[in-house]
Amino acid sequence: MEKAIAILAAGIGSRYGGFKQMDPVGPSGEFIIDYSVFDAIRAGFNKVVFIIRRDIEKEFRASIGDRVSKKIDTYYTFQELDDLPEGIEANPERTKPWGTVQAILSCESIIKFPFAVINADDFYGEESYRVISQYLEKISFSDVNACMAGFQLGHTLSNHGSVTRGICQSDENDMLKTIVETSGVCYEGDKIVCKDLFENKETLNKDDLVSMNIWGFHPVLFEIFKEEFTLFLQSHAKELKDELIISTTVNRLVAKAKVSVKVLSTSSNWFGVTNPEDKSEVVRKINDLIKSGEYPDNLWT
After folding, report:
1. Number of domains into which the chain is organized
2. Is residue 49 within 8 Å of residue 222, measured between CB atoms?
C-alpha cells in the first residue's frame, strides 16, 4: 500500500535563525528530520514530501534531501504566501504564509493516498510512526478519516522553559472529542501548570493526553481543509500574522462532525529543541538510543 509522510519544514530557516544554524544532533551530522524519515521508512512509508519555502530549497536539498532521496521516493512542495483560493486578496504588507493547513494543501497534487503529517523538528519515536502507519492501512472515507498519535503530557515537556501543547480529550472508544492549544505549559516544582485564556494558572496531570502534531489523514481531508481555509481567509485575509493550524481546524471539524479522529496511544518520549538549552539534552537522548541499539551510528550508510 502506498503511504506518504508529509514533513512541515517551511519554517525551518525562520525558527532556527537561519538555515545554516540548524545544528546536527546525531554523531554523523544527522538532524532530527533524518531520524524522522528513518523511522517512517521502517514503519512502512514509501514516499516523503518535504513542504518547504523556495528560498531554502537549494540548501535544504544539499543538507537533507539529497541523502534521504537515496532511501525513499522524495518530493518537494512549496508553501507560498500568495497561494490562495481564487478571489481572496491578502494584505499586501503580510510577509509570512498562512499556517499548517495551507502547508498541507500544497501537497494535494502529489498525495493521492493515505498520508501522515509531522513537524520537521520534532522527534516522535519509532512507535509513533508504526501505529500511524498501521492505522492508515485501514483508514476510510466513510468511517474514521483521520488519526493522531497521542502522547502523555509528562513525556513532552522541556526542562528549560514553557511550551504550548494541544491538550486532548477522547471518549471510551479512543475517538477525539476536543483538542485545545494551551500555552505556558511548564513545571512549577513538582506540578505541571498552564495558563488559561485569562492568564490564570491551572494544574495539569502528567498523564493528560496531548497532540504533538503527528497526524494520519485520508486524502478526502484535502477538500475539507480547502473549505476551512477559504472560510478562514474570508475573515482573516487582511491580518498580518493570523494562521490556520491543524489542531484548531481539526477541533472545529470534530465539533461539526465533519471529521472523525482515532487517537492512537504511544509510550514514546517526544523531544525537540523548543528552547535553545534543549539541544544538549536532545543530543544525549539520541546517543542513548544509539547505545541501546535503536539507531545505527550513521543512519544512511
Report:
1. 1
2. no
